[in-house]
Amino acid sequence: MQFEDLNITEPLQRALIKEGYSTPTPIQAQAIPHLLKGEDLLGIAQTGTGKTAAFVLPVLQRMAETQKVAAPGVPRALVLAPTRELAAQIDESFGTYGQFLRIRHAAVYGGVNQGPQVRALSRGVDTLVATPGRLLDLMDQGYIKLKDVEFFVLDEADRMLDMGFANDVRKIVSALPKRRHSLFFAATMSREIDELAGKLLSDPIRIEVAPQATMVETVEERVFFVDQKNKDPLLLGLLQQRCLNRVLVFTRTKRRADRVASVLSKKKIRADAIHGNKSQNQRNQALNGFKSGRLRVLVATDIAARGIDVEDISHVINYDLPIDADSYVHRVGRTGRAGAAGTAYSFCAADERELLREIEKLTRKKIGEMAHRYHSQEAKNAVGAAAKPAARKPRSLSRSPRDKREKGTERSGSRRSRRPHHRR
Questions:
Q1: Do 229 and 305 belong together in one domain?
Q2: Does residue 159 register a pLDDT over 70?
Q3: Helicase ATP-binding domain spans which residues (predicted)?
Q4: Is there a single domain that holds both residue 223 and residue 204?
Q5: How many domains does the chain have?
Q6: At residue 392, does pLDDT exceed 80?
Q7: d(Cα 63, Cα 149) in Å, to the nearest integer?
Q8: Does 213 map to a domain?
Q9: What is the pLDDT, as a whole number, of residue 339?
Q10: Global pTM?
Q11: Beta partners for 307?
Q12: What's the mean pLDDT in 242-247?
């Protein structure tokens, strides 16, 4: 099947050809015909399956067909994303695929000054991609009204709920018109996700392109049993191999991401870290450096890595195993994208052994062991309390849960004190 077989219009086909795309992925082939008919959709798809184009292309085509003009601050299409990076990536896709259409697009997210975003809204945008916190800020200030939204997309809904945005999503949805075309995407299904989809969608088509927690077949997975103290020398040893040419390293905490990036930099390995405590400009600089090849290694936390859409990542390395087994699937999905080959290495210390068992239980697959000079038999055989991470210290109660969640992420950079009274 080719894109032209999906009744994609000529301007969109021209953009696809220019970008080197001719054959749709399974989710694109299954979703686009239903979306062009205006049917609501529930899509279950892991990262790297092409789901962004699966909704961007039909939304652009249907918007172009109606030829409406968006009023200032009143978008016709709204896409909600959990992180800044994912919002920016989706907005970029609207620009790429819509380059031969007269469609205006913008993204709004926290961590940066809202001024340029407000100016873009004032000129009128057809498609708006937003993180929940910044969107609510701009709605409160009167800069955005959702009364004319025709197309609503909730992307990575499972991560949205994991990050605590459920109430924000419900508040945003309550401001949308009842009559709209709604699309809902998640990598995994849970009872909470199913309940939310039931409230947002009307008689939806359900598409699941891969069973839940199934790994990409083109990714080779290996585990290294290693003591915590030997993780740095193990990582440095692996990076001596030239085949590890574009490497995404995952750590469990922001502090460790910075430390690992510093260790690599001191050894003349071009590396940087990306996480929630970095400013948006710092995050953009690191991500652009990784995309361009200036950086060989990008060290990231799970939340910051959402939306990292970089071609040809040769290796994903789990320096720390994730607490949540689902996150392992998302991490590994950053390599082996679009049918390309990829490799995922996981470091497992004694206090992570139970986490590895949970990952193998979820994926229904035993990860092959890799022999190496820092092998730890203690890590491999750990059981009971010794196989579990130490409990985290309780967080400060000085801020509300909402403040904690959004500090330095979605709502940072808002300027309520300057809002004009006439915009209320």
A1: yes
A2: yes
A3: 32-207
A4: no
A5: 2
A6: no
A7: 11
A8: no
A9: 63
A10: 0.65
A11: none
A12: 92
